Amino acid sequence: MSVKTLISIGAMALTAVAVWAKPPSEGAGKLALSELSWMAGRWQSPAKTGYTDEHWAEPRNGAMNGMCRIGDDGKRSVYEILLIEEVGDKLEYSMMHFGPGLKPREKEPMKFDVERGKKDKEVVFVGRDKEKPARLTYSLASPDQLVCVLEKMRDGKQMRDEFRMNRVSGK
């Protein structure tokens, strides 16, 4: 790999850290947990080669918990335990991945700062890990469609995955 390529990769990584890993701007993290009740419900989406199921409980007692299952039909899934909670005077988002048998994929939960989105019914979770900058944006595209966009760096490249999930009623 040439020096020029390495410098380009380094510059992209630093740009991502500067953009994604910056602390929330003044007032941006001042969301009330009740303002996120629009996320509550059961959501489902076909993924590129499988499925995504996500469930969010209504906010209660300072927390809103969720779970997500992502996988291919006929194969084992990846599971996520999700938590948005009041910590002091702000909200914090925590996430942890598990494989089959609830084997943890991380040693500790990933932590994210919570920011108000640019539009109504949108929230942004900015990862605190400076080594692996990540950003999750949830928005309500319609009363029955939740959109989750994951932006992160992988192998020196900026990646963007979008999950469009439809509300599932009943059951």
The secondary structure category is: mainly beta
Largest sheet report? 10 strands, antiparallel, barrel
Q: In what order do the strands lie side by side in the largest sheet?
A: 1-2-3-4-5-7-8-9-10-11
Percent of residues in helices comes to: 10-25%
Account of the protein in words:
The structure is a single chain. The protein is mainly beta and 171 residues long. Helix content is 11%, strand content 51%. The protein has a 10-stranded antiparallel barrel with strand order 1-2-3-4-5-7-8-9-10-11. A hairpin with a 3-residue loop joins β5 (90-99) and β6. The chain is globular.
In short:
This protein has 171 residues and is mostly beta strands.
Strand and helix map with partners:
Layout: H1 3-20, E1 41-46, E2 51-56, E3 63-71, E4 77-87, E5 90-99, E6 103-104, E7 110-116, E8 122-127, E9 134-142, E10 145-154, E11 157-167
Antiparallel strand pairs: 1-2, 1-11, 2-3, 3-4, 4-5, 5-6, 5-7, 7-8, 8-9, 9-10, 10-11
List keywords for this structure.
11 strands, globular
